[in-house]
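Tutorial handout. Part one gives the primary structure; part two gives the three-dimensional structure as tokens.
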Amino acid sequence: MTLKINYLDHQNSFFKNRALFLMKDTKISDFKGIFDDKINQKILNYLKKSKNIKKNKIETISPDFDQKIIIIFLGGKNEDQNSEKLGAKFYDYIKKNEIKNISIQGSNFSSINNKINLNDFLHGAELKAYEFNLYKTKKNKKEININILKSKNNINQKIKSKLDAILSGVNFTKDLVSEPGNILHPDEYAKRLIKLKKLGIKVTVYDKNKLKKLGFNALLGVGQGSVRGSYLVTMEWNGTKSKSKPLAFVGKGVCFDTGGYSLKPARFMEDMTYDMAGSAAVVGLMKTLALRKAKVNAVGAVGLVENMVSGNAQRPGDIVKSYSGKTIEVLNTDAEGRLVLADALTFTEKKFKPKLIVDLATLTGAIIVSLGSEYAGLFSNDDKLSKQLLKAGENVDEKLWRMPLHKNFDKLMDSKNADMQNINYVGGAGSTTAAQFLQRFIINKTPWAHLDIAGMAFSKYAGALNSGGATGYGVRLLNKFVEDNYE
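Part two.
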């Protein structure tokens, strides 16, 4: 089922099914000339009982069996409103009630004192309407039409274009995360990223041979058991003429994770296609920045590998020399994401000399134990960067919770046989010790933040702004972070 939003001239359009926004102080005169007396009386009766109606209540008053009037109750003047969430809720309502064609009265917006933002409301509906049905032979070809009447008075085209860019970036991320492992392996992933060049993004692909020459032994060690290639792909967006340092975003792209010889349990292993969600968020962000012509210099770097079991796979106990020159004892081959990020972080810092680095990864199950699916974990060496990310997350409802870093946790990653080991065998603080491991590869003290999104990237159940499955988490968060602080 697809959602289509149409912008139409009210004078030439009539639809039986209509949606109205009401507040406690809405006057019946606001609808004079729009509806007949019978419908106006229904609205008036609804308003009379508004004291007992909960905010964001959506329900139908039906004067005739073939006509539906949907009431969206906004509460009082001083009650906060999240337009995006309400738009998503509205989409769910009309889908559940099989309303395929509905209009929203443009003139209604002037009567609610800008309480609802139409751009954000429709954006929320579009985010919620995402479906991944590429491999279904029988597709639902039904279409839901939301018709905006008198759109010129209510739609800011500049804002709409920006929101369309965000939607495109989020949906691209969801598409990537939703693909099965036999389709979106590292070779195919790299090919898809090359196509971003048409948006004005400079894309550079480092294949296995180039990475070997550069010394990416930590990343290559993860992928050496697969018949697929291993890659680092960088994406550069230069949105300003100035030669200012770029903002850098680094993502873990493990396209499928068996755990290697530290094999995962069979149950739910099929979900390990989303172990590349950190990289997908970086890709979606870069696409968003390019589509909306963001006035910022930014670089995205993603390490793309497949962690498989074979006669050539990495063994527990192997020691590898990372791009930074530091050696790592691989005690657990299922702690592979940090090995991919280790090389990617140091390379990004050295090559691009960025103003800051934010990495994203479905890194640890421990963060789900800590925060569930309500918050992603935030670890950082910089208070200012942390505050900026936390605020951006609150603004778009992609929440973060800052977790501790400390030298005593760092000691737990020391190895007797190498500079460090890739897991903490003492036990406990799994997410923090993983972050401490990553911090060792920020060589020049660049402001850095690590977002552990293991509990946020994929959901078995629908969320406020997604329909279940891949959530696209991180794209809207980082776009807001860039927009509010660096443009």
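Part three, for discussion. The chain has a mean pLDDT of 92. The CA atoms of residues 47 and 387 lie 42 Å apart.
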